[in-house]
Amino acid sequence: xxxxxxxxxxxxxxGTASANAGNLSAALAAGVAAGATETEWLHLLVQAGNLSAxxxxxxxxxxxxxxxxxxxxxxxxxxxPSWRIALWSLAYGVVVAVAVFGNLIVIWIILAHKRMRTVxxxxxxxxxxxxxxMAAFNTLVNxxxxxxxxxxxxxxxxxxxxxxxxxxxxxxxxxxxxxxxxRYMAIIDxxxxxxxxxxxxIVIGSIWILAFLLAFPQCLYSKIKxxxxxxxxxxxxxxxxxxxxxxxxxxxxxVYCFPLLVMGVTYTIVxxxxxxxxxxxxxxxxxxxxxxxxRKVVKMMIIVVVTFAICWLPYHIYFILTxxxxxxxxxxxxxxxxxxxxxxxMSSTMYNPIIYCCLNKRFRAGFKRAFRWCPFIExxxxxxxxxxxxxxxxxxxxxxxxxxxxxxxxxEFEPSEADNTKSSRKKRATPRDPSLSGCSRRNSKSASTxxxxxxxxxxxxxxxx
Length: 465
What we know:
Elements: H1 12-20, H2 24-34, H3 38-56, H4 68-75, H5 82-111, H6 119-148, H7 154-188, H8 197-220, E1 222-227, E2 230-235, H9 241-276, H10 285-324, H11 334-359, H12 361-370, H13 381-388, H14 399-407, E3 413-415, E4 424-426, H15 444-450
Antiparallel strand pairs: 1-2, 3-4
């Protein structure tokens, strides 16, 4: 991840050594010493093979076409047939189309409907924006560069190409981490106030600032190198391949291992809390409603996190293995392995909208509204209400909580013995726990103790469904 696909750690020495290599083994040794990696290393092998073939061939007249035959065979070693290029293009095109349009629809569903504007969903907006941006600005460009090893997009976009993917992945994974921490706080310690809209924006802004700082070296050391017959975009580290490898390990730890560890711990504790205890036999409807809603949201986010982890694992393993065992770069099918691992990593950007649509009824209603122009998509009146109707979202000490407390007071007036018509006595009011409104009295004690992590004056069902 230290240098996402297009960013090869190519040094000036590598290009010079390859150009002056007298035979294949010398060129290979020069390439290994220079630390050339990824797709450019494949083409370095090809280039070295051409030089070796030309140097070992008998010297023939310039007009003779014979020397071109062995060169063509070596050059085509990593050139893919047209049908394979078409299949890879289709696969990457599907990822980009689904990721961009799916995540844009998610952003529209949340921002265009007040009922969807919750703390969790604001982080989902940030996650969707990161995924859509990486799919739109990075996936196809990297695919083209990996396929041809020819940079067509200029020096400025070379810097952006090496800088932005790490930024977007960092923003994505830490948006998921923020959701996990928010779920943990809401379920384990529900009496604490939730994040406000301002605090949520500050957290999102901080995530992007840290992402820019982590990815800045990729932008700083990006270079364009014009070689005979092609142009390269790469990251030239001042201290060479070792520095590049260390940076790559740091990036893997910060954008993969650490956030996944945090989310693993928090969701394990939350899962034990939500699924581990027994539900009282006759508790209130509100208790069951919030419990089910919380379980659905946590289940959805766990699936999102697991999907991200599975998709990016082969990609990170690929870069570590090819950096440690550089002879793997000479393998005949290494280009196919790279394209497959890169496709799987980029496909993580398209799964989230599908997961939201399948596991959340409001997102499903939103997607139906977005595609209602299709003849086979129908939006029911209930689904319209799911997005348009706004429930009260109590915050801190909300009016809904106050009204609930007022309505829970029972007041009775009885006539006095002294004067049945002019005086009355108010009996002592009997307060009831607002969190148990609608619950049976015989189970009120058990419900009040077991629902302490479910009901809070700072949250409502809308926060979890």
